[in-house]
Amino acid sequence: MTATQSKAPPLKHLTGLNGLSSGTITAILDRASAHKELLLHDTADVPQSLKGKRIVLAFFENSTRTRFSFEIAARNLGASTLNFTASASSVSKGESIADTIRNLEAMRVDAFVIRHPSPGSADLISRITGKSIVNAGDGTHEHPTQGLLDIFTLREFFGKLEGVNIVILGDVLHSRVARSNIFGLGALGANVGLCSPVTLLPGDLPTTNFRVFTGIDDAIRWADAAIVLRLQLERTTGGYLPSLADYSLNFGLTDERLEKIRKHMLVLHPGPINREIEISSNVADRIQPPGFSKSMLLEQVTNGVAVRTAVLEILLSTTE
């Protein structure tokens, strides 16, 4: 640990960012920063601090970036991973999730990384096992490591987040990413804005620490950075939107919109992206100036490995 790193407080689980202190979040980000330096130079120098640990990647939903980055993170730390998919397990034969977890725990594993379509599932599992739980996305509830990697990316660029204006664009109602970012960014003092069609704005977020925009032009004029959410295409058939074309016209982040405000904008997206719907290809792919935006999409993927390395190390080094 370097002199500038915050000491990570003891954590047994990471099921969400709601309720985490700024000190805890900062300690995770500081640890991730140290791991990123090692990853960018030579993974052979990453300390094998989890050698001998077994981590179950239990994904009840499909995933690419999240699953692979957790697997890379675990292996970089010397841990072994067991990949679980619901369709190839006893869950498909009717076994309950509680029985599945208990049986895997009996195999002497040390932690579970859980992705599940039901909100609250990660918290439920944390109550039935003595092993550490990392929530890799539970329904529309939270996706804490995605929130942390977004926050890490923003902090790296701006230096600090206090007073920085961050707008979250898109389907906030159904987004676990949005919720984790609202909680985490708010804890670090950022000003959070939400911009969405009124049909896709939640009415039950347990915080008032954000402002709401119903027009994208006002939102990006206010913001220093935008986190663009993936629009789930079934929303048009669920009565939330008139059409995808209507959504793209009124809420898509495009060059034309950014050129109107003539202000540099940092752009993030959790992926996968729907090109020319919530974000234009030019905006998504622009990683170098000139232009009125800078895409951090691939930087986010790199940062995801560093953040998840930090989370696994902190959880498993404080739950001996």
Describe, in plain words, how this protein is organized in 3D:
By secondary structure, the protein is an alpha/beta fold. It has two domains: 22-143 and 302-317, Aspartate/ornithine carbamoyltransferase (Rossmann fold); 145-299, Rossmann fold, CATH 3.40.50. It has eleven helices and ten strands. It has helices spanning 22-41, 65-76, 97-105, 121-126, 144-158, 176-187, 216-222, 244-251, 255-261, 281-285, 297-317; strands at 54-59, 80-85, 111-116, 132-138, 165-169, 191-195, 211-213, 225-228, 265-268, 293-295. The strands form two sheets. A six-stranded parallel β-sheet has the order 7-6-5-8-9-10. The protein has a four-stranded parallel β-sheet with strand order 2-1-3-4. β9, α10 and β10 form a beta-alpha-beta unit. α2 (65-76) packs across α11 (297-317). The longest helix has 21 residues, at 297-317. It starts with 21 loop residues before the first helix and ends with a helix. The mean pLDDT is 90.
Brief digest:
The chain has 320 residues and is α/β, with parallel strands linked by helices. The protein has helices at 22-41, 65-76, 97-105, 121-126, 144-158, 176-187, 216-222, 244-251, 255-261, 281-285, 297-317; strands at residues 54-59, 80-85, 111-116, 132-138, 165-169, 191-195, 211-213, 225-228, 265-268, 293-295.
- Helix/strand order, N-terminal first: HEHEHEHEHEHEEHEHHEHEH
Which superfamily, in CATH terms, is the homologous superfamily of the largest domain?
Aspartate/ornithine carbamoyltransferase
Strand content: 15-25%
> What share of residues is helical?
25-40%
The number of helical runs is: 11
The general outline is globular
User: Taking strands numbered 1, 2, ... along the chain, how are they ordered across the largest sheet?
Assistant: 7-6-5-8-9-10
| CATH C-level class of the largest domain | Alpha Beta
